[in-house]
Amino acid sequence: MDQGIIIKELQFKAVRSSGPGGQHANKVSSKIELSFDVDASLGLSPEEKQRICLKLRSRLTAEKILKLNCEESRSQHKNKELVTKRFFLLLKKALEVPKKRKPTKPSKSSVEQRLKSKRKQSNKKINRKRPDLD
C-alpha cells in the first residue's frame, strides 16, 4: 500500500451538512464526502485490492467505490483531515492478515487435574443421595 499514490487518488466533495444549524448550515458546505475507486487504484497491489473488496464489501458500491462521510466539525478542512485519517485506518484494518492458529493439546497434568475435579464433584453429588436401605 503506497499512501502517497493513494492520497492523490482520493476524491473529495464538499456538501451541505444535515441537521440543525440555522443560517450557518444553510450557506456553508462543511460536510466532506470521500470516494476512492478500489479497482482503479495504482497504490494497491492486486492481492490488496482483493482483500479490501472481501473485507469491506458491505461498504463498497456496485462499481467498487468506497465512500466515507464526515460532518463532525464546522470546518471543512478539519472534516477533510478526519475523513482521510478514518479512511487510512479502515484500509489498514482491512489489509491486516490474521495470525494463523497453531493447534495445541492440553498438558497431561491439566487433563489429570480436570478428571480429578470431575471425580470429586461426582462423589460430592453421590454422597448427597439418600442411602440405600435394602
From TrEMBL:
GO molecular function, a single term: translation release factor activity
Listed Basic residues bias regions: 116-128
A family per Pfam: RF-1
Start and end residues of each Prokaryotic-type class I peptide chain release factors domain: 8-125
Segments for region (Disordered): 98-134
Entry similarity comment: Belongs to the prokaryotic/mitochondrial release factor family.
NCBIfam families: PRK09256.1
This protein's name: Ribosome-associated protein
Organism: Flagellimonas meridianipacifica
